[in-house]
Amino acid sequence: MAACSGDTTGSQVSGHSTSKSRRKICDKHNRAELFMSRTDANPFRRFVKCPERVRGCTFFDWVDDPMPDYQTMWVERLKMQKESLEDQVEGKMAMVNNLSERIELKEHEILLLRGKCAELEAMVKQCRRNSCLMKGVVALGVFGLLFVIVLVVVLKY
Ligand SMILES: [Zn+2]
User: Which residues form the signal peptide (predicted)?
Assistant: First the structure.
């Protein structure tokens, strides 16, 4: 069997085909190229046409018989499944994009929070220093007060 080709390229088909009922070669130019139909009406149905078609030759013939109804139905069903899967892929891609954007935002937030964290740590250190200073002042005050009380008591007696 000759290899099937797309709509744009074709390969030469030899005249000795198995199907007797169909012409496989243009009588006028003794040439033909094999193609495969991608239309909804004739999916994957092979046909031949003359390479001289561009110069007006009208030779065209189907190689395969029309697809039976049940096969056409299956092709339609598979097409619908393909479309559904493509929709799903599109939906998932949109989700991935959305999540990527959210991750980017969160990364930005993390950076901001790290900056704030560093600021707070610096403030805590400063507070600790201040607190030490205050403790010293309070201790000095208490000591002074005790000294005064002791002095008063000693002078009284
Ligand atoms: Zn021709």
Answer: none
